[in-house]
TrEMBL record:
Organism listed in the record: Leptospira biflexa serovar Patoc (strain Patoc 1 / ATCC 23582 / Paris)
Domain Flavoprotein: 1-185
UniProt record similarity statement: Belongs to the UbiX/PAD1 family.
Molecular function terms, GO-annotated: flavin prenyltransferase activity; lyase activity
Protein name: Flavin prenyltransferase UbiX
Primary role: Flavin prenyltransferase that catalyzes the synthesis of the prenylated FMN cofactor (prenyl-FMN) for 4-hydroxy-3-polyprenylbenzoic acid decarboxylase UbiD. The prenyltransferase is metal-independent and links a dimethylallyl moiety from dimethylallyl monophosphate (DMAP) to the flavin N5 and C6 atoms of FMN.
Catalytic EC class: transferase
Catalytic activity: dimethylallyl phosphate + FMNH2 = prenylated FMNH2 + phosphate
Keywords (A to Z) from UniProt: Flavoprotein, FMN, Lyase, Prenyltransferase, Transferase
Residues binding dimethylallyl phosphate, per UniProt: 165, 181
Amino acid sequence: MKLVVGLAGASGSIYAARFLKALFSIEGETYITASPASLRIFSEEYETSVKTTEDILLFVEEKWKVKPKHKFHVRNFLDIGSDIASGSNVWDAMVVIPCSMKTVASMSAGLTENLIERAADVTLKERRRLIVVPRETPYNRIHLRNMLALDEAGAILLPASPGFYQMPKTLDDLGDFIAGRILNLLGHSQTLFPKWEG
Ligand SMILES: Cc1cc2nc3c(=O)[nH]c(=O)nc-3n(C[C@H](O)[C@H](O)[C@H](O)COP(=O)(O)O)c2cc1C
């Protein structure tokens, strides 16, 4: 599995952290970039200080003592000349987690000012899978229109709204619900939460 993962500046760092933790134990490789806003919010929500994308990976590795089976390639958020800015570099899917309404707006309008936006644009034009995990509440009509435009362009909107029927005990359980649903969409079996048995 070859992925691109972008962390944009929405609340919900836990979704990114638990998804990355899950990726650590899966064979494959991921190109990853985090926006400055996402680093700030991650720092606030985890009461830590992450200044770079590498810091986030290190944080996840140390917090949950996971040994990486997965290969991560960090890319600079502002480097729109990066390898993942071109469709000639082939990846299976891209995940934007969490995704701000600003990045939703840019992606839906085809604006590509940073590497998350450019890689998302490439993902859509190459007809690859783009999974977007938006977080805002409430939504205004602009947000809704932009999300509809993204869906119409082929993206999958997987909102940061975990289910509660699995009886989550911890915040990590809520993060794992979203991480597991993404893995399902990536065609990967997952045991982060049990299947609903009816
Ligand atoms: C603490 C904090 C929480 C935020 N939470 C959200 C959010 O949940 N959803 C959202 O759309 N924007 C949120 N924002 C605003 C975005 O970070 C801001 O629009 C930023 O420009 C997004 O840029 P990016 O998508 O390139 O990271 C938040 C900002 C801060 C400082």
